[in-house]
Design brief:
five-stranded parallel sheet; four-stranded antiparallel sheet; elongated
Length: 225
């Protein structure tokens, strides 16, 4: 299940194994994904349906990633994350000069790539200043949280968890989805950290006798409703 109308991502890389890994990881994180193995195919796909972000390999068989970046940048401000097997300053500088927004050297950790994707998308699409649901509000600028007229103090993780629920109201969020988005990694251990933090949030949100908003969906996850 995708989270909160995620923008589409276009992956342009001539290595089928990398493309397959990126497709699975990005799809699991909730992003619609399209792929291309050549520069020509990638440029065509970008023209057919403008993506929300492009992940672009430097070494392509028919055209360099630098040239693809330059062409994509003509008339478009789509975020571009370039991938390269060469950790050379000149290459990184050249890519940035052609319009790339960020650079990642192969081999890379998927957690880092996903973090960079989230950062680039946040810059491209600033979130609403105030997130609201029912009588609950969260100001993303000041981090002020209120239930009606009552102000609520949140820890950093409580804030991230609540903001995730507020961006996805009435959607069932699985345990793995929440762990990846809030704690930044795929989680399959036995820790009850998520249950503990949901408990913290419920206690604070319901401290004034208010109705419960964060509900457990047995065998599935949690939902704000």
């Amino acid at each position: 299940m995708a989270l909160a109308v995620q923008p589409g991502i276009l992956v342009i890389d001539d290595d089928p194994k990398i493309v397959s890994v990126l497709r699975r990881a990005l799809a699991y994180a909730g992003y619609p994904v399209r792929t291309a193995l050549t520069a020509a195919e990638g440029l065509a796909r970008a023209l057919e349906e403008p993506p929300g972000l492009v992940i672009l390999d430097v070494m392509l068989p028919d055209l360099s990633g630098f040239e693809v970046c330059r062409r994509l940048r003509q008339g478009s401000d789509v975020p571009i994350l370039m991938l390269t097997a060469r950790d050379e300053v000149d290459d990184r500088v050249h890519g940035l000069d052609q319009g790339a927004d960020d650079y990642l050297v192969k081999p890379f950790a998927l957690q880092e790539l996903l973090a960079r994707v989230r950062t680039l998308l946040r810059r491209a699409r600033p979130e609403p200043k105030v997130l609201r649901y029912a009588d609950l509000s969260l100001d993303t600028g000041t981090r002020e949280t209120r239930r009606g007229d009552r102000e609520i103090a949140l820890s950093a993780k409580e804030y991230e968890l609540l903001s995730l629920f507020l961006r996805n109201p009435r959607q069932v969020l699985t345990r793995d989805m929440i762990m990846e988005h809030v704690w930044g990694y795929d989680f399959s251990g036995e820790s009850n950290v998520l249950e503990v933090y949901v408990g913290y949030l419920r206690s604070k949100l319901e401290a004034g006798g208010e109705l419960r908003l964060i509900h457990t969906v047995r065998g599935a996850g949690y939902v704000l409703k």
